[in-house]
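Backbone-to-sequence.
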């Protein structure tokens, strides 16, 4: 059983920055692929970023590329999402997820474990 806990969400003004954290227990973050997704009520869960277990390759949605950075700290067993130049359209509940195996890491169905989510609100 893998337990994920997100933190760092909150309210910021447009152009500001926020850093989300995902603390992982039950399995080391180096042994799984990790991803960040976001969801607005009534919408599909949207891929944001992922970091692979092998050589820590990263991939980003076009909407956040150049503004967001995903990283991991193996010693702290934690994954981060650094968000800069935030826009009102970034407002959503952000979820951390872990995949034990497989490809297709831009799809929610590829992940086995999920956190409870943290709210991010960006005002104009």
């Amino acid at each position: 059983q893998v337990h994920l806990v997100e933190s760092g969400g909150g309210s910021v003004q447009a152009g500001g920055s926020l850093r989300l954290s995902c603390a992982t227990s039950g399995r080391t973050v180096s042994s799984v692929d990790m991803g960040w997704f976001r969801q607005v009520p009534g919408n599909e869960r949207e891929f944001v970023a992922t970091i692979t277990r092998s050589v820590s390759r990263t991939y980003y949605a076009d909407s956040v590329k150049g503004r967001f950075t995903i990283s991991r700290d193996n010693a702290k067993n934690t994954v981060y999402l650094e968000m800069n130049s935030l826009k009102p359209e970034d407002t959503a509940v952000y979820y951390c997820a872990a995949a034990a195996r497989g490809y297709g890491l831009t799809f929610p169905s590829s992940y086995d474990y999920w956190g409870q989510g943290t709210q991010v609100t960006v005002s104009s």
